[in-house]
Amino acid sequence: MRVLSKLHAFLYLRGFKVWLSYRTQVFLTVLSWTLPVFTYYFVGTSLGDSFVKDIGVKDYTSFFVIGLAFQGYVSSVITTVSQRIRNEQLYGTIEYYVLSRSGVTSFLFYSSLWGFTVNTVNAVIILLVGLGLGVRYNVNVLSSLAIVAMLLLSTLGLAFLSGAFTMVIKQGNPISLFFSTFTTLTTGVVFPVTDLPPLVRDVSFALPLTWALDGLRLTMLNGYSLTQVAPILEVLALFDMVLVTLGIWAFKYAFNIARVKGTLGEY
User: Fold this and answer.
1) Within 13 Å of residue 164, how many CA atoms lie on the same side as its CB?
2) 48-74 pLDDT, tens per residue?
3) How many whole angstroms from its chain centre is CA 145?
4) What is the Rg, in whole angstroms, of the alpha carbon atoms belonging to the chain?
5) Biggest CA pair distance of the chain
6) What are phi and psi of 129, to 5 degrees?
7) Within 13 Å and on the Cβ side, how many CA atoms surround 123?
8) In this predicted model, what pLDDT tens digit does every residue of 127-162 receive, in sequence order?
9) What pLDDT, on the 0 to 100 scale, is given for residue 104?
10) Is the dihedral of CA 257, 258, 259, 260 positive or negative?
11) ∠36-37-43 over CA atoms, to 5°?
């Protein structure tokens, strides 16, 4: 019952109900999800098949539709968590949340759920727009869900890290800035990472989103099974173990610093 009560509070009352009360914002948000799809579609068709094949992509529309659909999970969930902490600091309610019986980890986990939920809607809309633009999916549901689940876990760890920065430095979060601005260029969202300069390519392979997008293109466009994407799942499992552990430790450490210094509610 307590879990259902928290899901109702964080997902429906603090998430869906507040989001839906700003109708103009909802319209603009959906517009911001779909417009990049058409932008890259027209860029791809303008460049022509020969140029697209030169960068190692067989079907550019299928390539960027998968990239855009799932890139939002990483960037938006991280931003959602840090923004939620920031808002609670501004409202003066952060102490009530983190000092409640639910604890710090529970506050972060339930705050992340709304980000995951709204970005699932985002991903579905982009995939449907891609279908309308001619993308032909050949989805292996089990292997696709496995990769998405592992991507969500690593994103949760990054969101915890981002929340740790917000808890201590309040504004100017480097984790949130990096994942909301640079991941489109560095993780193979709209073009292959093999075309990046060597140094940037190395950074790209150090991010879980790069591996997840490679795997999702194989499972959603070519129907690859769990066995065929096992090497990618192993890499993502390693990211999950490291990032979730590091994220929880970092947020608890930042929380203790803020609590000892008495800056928990400062903004």
Assistant:
1) 21
2) 766 667 766 778 889 989 998 888 777
3) 15
4) 19
5) 61
6) -60, -40
7) 21
8) 999 999 999 999 999 999 999 999 988 888 888 888
9) 64
10) positive
11) 85
pLDDT band at 80 (very low <50, low <70, confident <90, very high): confident
Neighbours of 42 (CB within 10 A): 10
Of 100, 129, 107, give the one whose Cα is nearest residue 41. Answer: 129
**Type of residue numbered 191:** F
Provide long-range contacts, Cβ within 8 A and 24+ apart, for 88-96: 89/170, 89/264, 89/265, 89/266, 89/267, 90/267, 92/265, 94/264, 94/265, 95/264, 95/265
Say yes or no to pLDDT of 246 above 70.
Answer: yes
In sequence order, which ranges of the chain are alpha helices (DSSP H)? 2-7, 18-21, 23-47, 49-54, 60-91, 94-98, 103-132, 141-169, 174-181, 183-186, 198-205, 208-221, 230-261
From first CA to last CA, the distance across the chain in angstroms is: 34
